[in-house]
Amino acid sequence: MLTYFCPNCWSIVDKNQHACPHCGYILEDFDDLTYEDKLLAALQHPVPERRIMAAHILGNLKSQRALPVFLRIILSGEDNYFFLRSVLLATAKIDHPDRMVILEKASQHSSTLVSKLAIELIAQITRNGSTVEWDQHTG
Questions:
Q1: Fewer CB near the last or first residue (10 Å), C or N of the chain?
Q2: In a domain? residue 133
């Protein structure tokens, strides 16, 4: 049996409901969102794998609209390393000046793994210019 979530508040909803009983969001409105908007919303999904996948795709799409959301995630106190790793790798793919701001903030993260990855990505961007060649096996 599938579990359905409201894309606004992420409460569990019945698949046949018209509006979320928790926040009032008209569930059919989600169908009218762009793919990018749906991915941005998925960064708040309660299932970690969905958040990771959304961050990864936003990076591949080079979504500049994702950058402010990525910054909020880095500053939020989020502690899921795998999600933060996906956010940082996605950030590094988006050739925009804000990515360096986000990576600099992440380089001061309380998690050693997060800060180390951010420092490595900054070094790689500095060496290679705007391109990031991240090896998923060594990184």
A1: N
A2: no
Residue 91 domain-assigned (yes or no): yes
Q: 10 lies in a domain?
A: no
Check residue 41 and give left, alpha or beta (phi > 0: left; psi -120 to 50: alpha). Answer: alpha
Contacts made by residues 4-12, CB under 8 angstroms, sequence distance 24+? 5/45, 5/46, 7/33, 7/38, 7/41, 8/41, 10/44, 10/45, 10/46
Domain limits at 123? Answer: 65-128
Model confidence pLDDT, tens digit, residues 34-49 = 999 999 999 999 899 9
- Domain count for the chain, please give it: 1
Q: Is 57 helix (H, G, I), strand (E, B) or coil?
A: helix
Write the pLDDT tens digit of every residue in 12-36.
999 899 999 999 999 999 989 999 9
Q: Is residue 39 part of a domain?
A: no
> What's the 3-state SS for 71-109?
HHHHHCCCCCHHHHHHHHHHHHHCCCCHHHHHHHHHCCC
**Token pair in block for residue 98:** 């804000």
